[in-house]
Amino acid sequence: MRRIYLICFAQIYTCAFLSILLQYRGLLGENGLLPAEEFWKQIKKNYEPKQLPSLLWFCDQYFDLTVEGIALSGLLVSMLAQMYQHALLYAFMFMAYLTIFTIGQTFLSFQWDILLLEAGAATILYAPFLTLKVAPEHDDEGHPALWILRSIVVKLLILSGVVKVNAQCPTWKYLTALEFHFASTCLPTAEGWFLHSFPPILLRFGVAVMFLIELVAPWLMLIPITPIRRAGVIVQIPLQVLIQFSGNYNFFNLLTLVLLIPAWAHDFAIHHFWERSWQRLYLVCYILTFAALTYTFLQLFPFVFLAKSDDFSSLLTKSVIRLDNLATESWTRKMIQITLSSLAVHIFYAIVSLTAVSYSFFGTHTLKQKLRRCMLSVFCLGYLALILVPYRSILDQDLPLPYAAQAALRVLEPRLGPFRVSSSYGLFRRMTGVGSTQESGWAGVPLASKVAVPAVVIEVSTDNGASWLEIPFRYAPYKPDRPPRRTAPHQPRIDWQMWFAALGSYQYNPWFLHLLYRLILFVEYRKEDPVIDLLDLHLLNKKIPSSTIGKILIRAWRYEYDFTRVPSPWALSIPGTKLSACTPDFWPHSWHLDSFPANRTSPCRDYWTRAKISEYVPTVDKALLFKQVIQPQGWPAHSYSSDKNVRPSSFFSFATLAYIYNEYLGGSTLCKFVGFNLPCPPGLACIHDIYIDGPLLLTLMSLTLPWYFTRIYNSFSARFKCYRSRKAYARSKKHDDDN
């Protein structure tokens, strides 16, 4: 399991570094939306290298090329780590990502970025230091870093569940969050459109199951009984797969799945009496664990029948059943007080210590090996305390750690804190896209099912405002008839930030005003711009006229979006929804579109329905944006990169690597690779062409290259060994003949 985990984690790094490499110049380059060089110059004045660890302390020139070189090096090393799992490779990947994270500002402020750093630091301890790769016979069951990695994923899940309860968001309280989630996620998908039309009772059942998985099931992965711990892993997998399937959550859910692997691993060797004892009880443990989870679910989320029904299908179409939510804030507080009590924490540390002792002194042969493992175990026990510190955010007090762990924490926290090795999490604290309230929603729940997802739409005029053209983004919602695009595990960070910008005001998003300025420059001069490369460049070039006939103006509106729905009685009961003209063949005849009012229908090609709500940015021109935004921020007035074609003086440097990548390997061209449409194959009833996303395709290619090179290497190695054996045989035969 150790080798599988390390290879999978390296693949996550591959996705992360490639995604950043494709976007760096447009986001953080010299002519990006938030230039990182000036930001770095400002922050490094106030810190020392030990307070702000970064590879950029060794960079004095060619800043952008250096950062690109760091990202490219991280990408190459992550590919190498899929073949060789040495700890130094993971240490370099961690420092490379930490360096980019430090200068990332708004565009690298996501929780999966800090999760990758936290898990990446712990993975260094789990990787081998004395061998290039993990051999199957040296899998090292019971490695002390296993408990650190398990604690990280448990902390992620528990904190994510607790903040949903404590936020007192009505959608979580009444279990209606999934009735908004699929449309209100940052970058929706076509699969999300389909799930958005599911019956409310199924969606609410899904929310209840999610609470069970995030609040109760994670603790199973800290139990020192392998079958029970594996049952906890099995429960988590469907949730992460469904989230990845229904949304564009980049590498986040893939990373969470990878972090489940340590919980699957054994604590002791297979022949150890503890593992042998439970080997015979696997099925019993699974049955009892799932039975306990089912009982807990029924206690926390009881079914309430509002009316009698003999037909199961009526449960999906009428308000005859309701799920109540008893996982309240008081229940959650009591659960946390028990699971994080002094007794529970001390027992947990005792279990970890016992496995560390077994790892250090049993199964090893030399005294040197015992001492080395003992030192690693002691450090991991202290490091574990650092991982557990963020629990105080839900305890309102410090975690009751053992005395030795507290002493280690006082030593490690000030030294390792700047490396972002321990963080707190709180995903989806409140659900967005919730429309106006009804007196009574579905199944008697007093909450609206109306979806109103805020989105910002940018319009540009080339004729003094006589006509306006909408600017197309690659992945953010656009015209109603453009299908949602899938790009994960790539994260288009400008499209993600557009979602956050719609929730607030442009005054708090200076990068957005910078984007408006760069759009005006592009429309006016039609020159290459790394910022514009991040948009839907193909469609943009088609829409923008080749010449202007007046002053170029730009503005932004706030819209509210919702998915169209497959026709159904519950969809009709939701105010303001539009029913798609496309009805699945298996749909009940009474639910077909001709059974519903004509004013509630939408064309078959439409995935979205939208309405203009308010002005987001008033009409402005280039001069006004330059005077009030660009000049005060010190951003360049043009979009030409001064060091783009400058050859670095030092050959062995990150900057030189990036220069070779951009000039000779087509790196700048890859950034513009949006994707392409494939015509619908014969025999399939497609409404739209099949869209193939460029960054997603590049990511898949990057993930398969190490496997391809490994096969070539193994083939070459086998042939070389065969050649050497033939030569040796020929020499020995000649020697025998001579004698």
UniProtKB/TrEMBL annotation:
The keyword Glycoprotein applies. GO terms for biological process: protein maturation. Keywords: Endoplasmic reticulum, Glycoprotein, Membrane, Transmembrane, Transmembrane helix. Residues 423-566 form the Lipase maturation factor 1/2 C-terminal domain. It is a multi-pass membrane protein. It is found in: Endoplasmic reticulum membrane. Residues 109-263 form the Lipase maturation factor 1/2 N-terminal domain. Belongs to the lipase maturation factor family. This is Lipase maturation factor 2. It comes from Aureoumbra lagunensis.
